[in-house]
Amino acid sequence: MPSKEISVSSKSRELLKKSKKGILNVIFSRTSIVILLLALQVGGLLLLFFRFRHYFPYYYAALALFSLVMVLRILNTDSDPNMKITWLVVILLLPVAGTLLYVYIEHDIGHRSLNRRTDEIFQRSRGLLPLNGAEKKLEKEHPEDASLARYLYKTSETPVYEGCDVRYLPLGEDFLKALLEDLESAEKFIFLEYFIVEDGRMWQPIEDVLARKAAEGVKVRLLYDGTCEFARVPHSFPAYLQELGIEARPFAPIRPFVSTHYNFRDHRKITVVDGRLAYTGGLNLADEYANYIHPYGHWKDTAVRIEGEAARSFTLMFLQMWQVRDHTLSFEPYLSAPAQPHRQEKGYVIPYSDCPLDNERVGEMVYTQILNSAQRYVHIMTPYLILGHELESALCFAAKRGVEVSIIMPAVPDHLLAYALAKTHYKALVDSGVHLYEYTPGFVHAKSFVSDDLRATVGTINLDYRSLRHHFECACYLCGTDCVKDVEEDFQKTLAQCQEVTAQEAAHIGFKWRLLGSLMKLFAPLM
Known about the structure:
Blueprint: H1 10-18, H2 23-27, H3 30-51, H4 56-75, H5 81-93, H6 95-106, H7 112-124, H8 134-141, H9 143-156, E1 161-162, E2 165-169, H10 172-184, E3 189-194, H11 203-215, E4 219-225, H12 228-231, H13 237-242, E5 247-251, E6 265-266, E7 270-273, E8 277-281, E9 298-300, E10 303-307, H14 311-322, H15 332-335, E11 348-354, H16 362-373, E12 377-381, H17 389-400, E13 404-410, H18 416-423, H19 426-431, E14 435-439, E15 442-444, E16 448-451, E17 455-459, H20 465-470, E18 471-479, H21 483-495, E19 498-500, H22 503-507, H23 511-521
Parallel strand pairs: 3-4, 4-5, 6-18, 9-15, 12-13, 13-14
Antiparallel strand pairs: 1-11, 2-10, 3-7, 7-8, 8-10, 11-18, 12-16, 14-19, 16-17, 17-18
Helix pairs in contact: 4-5, 5-6, 8-9, 9-16, 10-11, 16-17, 18-23
């Protein structure tokens, strides 16, 4: 337990809890006010439209012609084919609203400042993590993985590392235990970046350690996604943590203005301790992730703990996102930590990130490369299966050329629309020889690929459009490390608790799921 000097008073914590509960608090909360103001803006636009509806016939023809021009323009862009189809249908069904919406979203209106800021940050941080020679050894041992490493360095500027100690953590309970021990060891700084943070039994012991370390002089920073303010934490959460000496801020907090800025969420999960060790994976900091509560049955999630030089890449990832709102923070003091002693652990580690603003689909390229490189098997765990044509083709092609491709998904979904969309892929995948399994104890939230006892990736990237196109993401690619076998062993243990989707089941999906999936597939690229 933290000392009285660094503990928030019971009154302060009670106020924090009350800020999340009660009908009046909900009605008059910042989130409700934001939703109301957004609704008023949309209502105002509709009112303006109907006010001038009498003039509509005069400019409808011109707008229809403009819509035709927009259709031709969309057909000649280099965007994703599925995205093209979605926009074409929207514009043909709603020429006025569809065209305006397309122009608004596709021309960066609403998030140009974010785009400029991230470009500036990435330019400033270019070259801070130079190549160290490990990529040459990887080239000799595994040329296919070396080609991927070159791509990742070009897009993410994260080098190949060797001699790192990598531990695979197969459950949230394992992750929490290891995390608390490592947080206690911090001497200089602790950085945490998570999509979801929520006060509860998982967060409380983490908060206690963070408060104690901050009182000891350790720099503690927490970055969480702004959507948490809808239901997970109150708007006053950063001020509350500031009393503990913890710097905290939301990424892209929801404001009372209609903007495409909110489409890009920080879905990453990163912890860095002193620049010498790091965590990433599917786990957020809320009770369901450690199975303290069971909203969708047993919660299956995974993470990796990386100790060694590779932790610096995660340090840089955190600092890049933190600087979106902090123009004064310097990179160098946190990246110039003394070099870690070279370990004897075999294999190579490549941390990587994916930014939705640079037109590079890094996460998808890594998954596709694993599928195309596989000789014997590719085993996948993912909570969602909302695929574009290219990734579905890669999965089917791997299976057709004799690679055993198996995918574990939840049997208990957390989002019915996503579950319905997943089922629209079942028949094509199963007919091609892909094995689909549903985790009967509950919900799989892990995001992992493992192949041929040689390579694996564990991180935050789901097999859906949001992760592959619209989110800030991260992961860790492993080649030849000892823990690759641990990823595979965990897959097999999880598989023993799954039920396979048969060819007959895949061909005869229930009418409700087929109807819902067919309707939502049109909008899948926007989900």
